[in-house]
Amino acid sequence: MTRVAAVDCGTNSIRLLVAEAVSDAGTMPAAAGQPADGHLAAGQPLVGRTAPLLRDLTRRMEIVRLGAGVDRTGELAPDALERTFAALRDYAKEIDRLGAVKVRMVATSATRDARNQDVLVAGVRSILGVDPEVITGEEEAALSYAGATRELRGYPEPFLVADIGGGSTELVLGDAENVHAARSVNVGCVRLAERHLHDDPPTAAQLASVAADAHAAFDLAERTVPIRSAATLVGVAGTVTTVAALAADLPGYDPGRIHLSATAAADVAAVAGRLAAMSHAQRAALPVMHPGRVDVIVAGALVLRTLIERVGAAGVIASEHDILDGIAFSLLG
After folding, report:
1. Is the pTM of this model over 0.70?
2. Average pLDDT over residues 191-209
3. Class of the CATH domain delimited by 3-136
C-alpha cells in the first residue's frame, strides 16, 4: 500500500504526517448522531463515506516559530530557519524509516510574506529532496478544507472551515462535495500577539486591538465568503484544539477526546477571557498547553471568539484533521 509523507510548514509550527490510505471506515468515528457531551461515539461507520480515509503511521509537531518577526521585518530570521531545518532533518529520518514513497511539503503565511523565502526553499531541497511549495492563501484554504471535511457527513451543511494559524486565518465555505468560496486573511495568533500583546497579562486596550484586527479581517473575508450562511463551523489547528481541550477541562492534551468535539460559543468566550486574565506562567502551567503556544494562545482564542460572534454560530467543532490530511490526500489522488 502506498505510503505518503505530508509536511506543513506554518508560521508557528512545522508538522509531519506519514500515512497510507484505507478503504474500510468501519472503525472510524461517526459523523452523525453526536451525543450531548459533544463527542462522537467510536466504532460506528461514517454516514455516506465512499472516499478513502487515512491510516496514520506517525503525526509529529514541533514549534519552530518560523514566522517570528516576519510581520515587522519582512524576512525569515536565521535562527528561525535553523530551528526549522533541525526539525526537518528529524522528519527526513522518519520519512525514510517508514518508507514513504511520495513527499509533499507546503509552506504558508510566514513564507509567503518573506522576502528571503529562497533560503528556506534551498534548505528544504537539500534535506528532503523536494522543493517546498509556497502556496497561496486560497490553496492553503482548499487543502485545509479537504482534510477537515472527510468525516463530516451527517452534519448540517454548508460547512465553514476555519484554519487559525500563526500568520493567517483561512476561511472556506462548502459542502461535502465542493468548495463554494474561500479567503485567507492576515490574522493569526503569532502575528497579532507580536503586534498587540506586550504586557503580562495583556491590557484591555491590547485585547481590544486584537479583536479589532480580527473584525477588520472578517469584514474583508465577507466580501467573498458568506460566512454567516454556515450551518456548521469547523475549526482546525492548535488554537482551536487547545481551546476545546481547555473548555472540556481535560487533564492533558488528548487528540482522541478533542477530535470532532463540540465547544459552545459561551464556553469559547469563557476560555478566551480566562486566558486573557492569566499571566504567562499561569498559562504555561495549564496541563493541555504546549509550551510553544503559551505566548500566542490569547490572540488565537480572541480570533476564534470573534469569528464565532461574526458567524453567529452556536459553537465550533474541533478537528484534529486539517491541511496535513489534505496534503496527504493530494498525494494519494
Report:
1. yes
2. 96
3. alpha beta
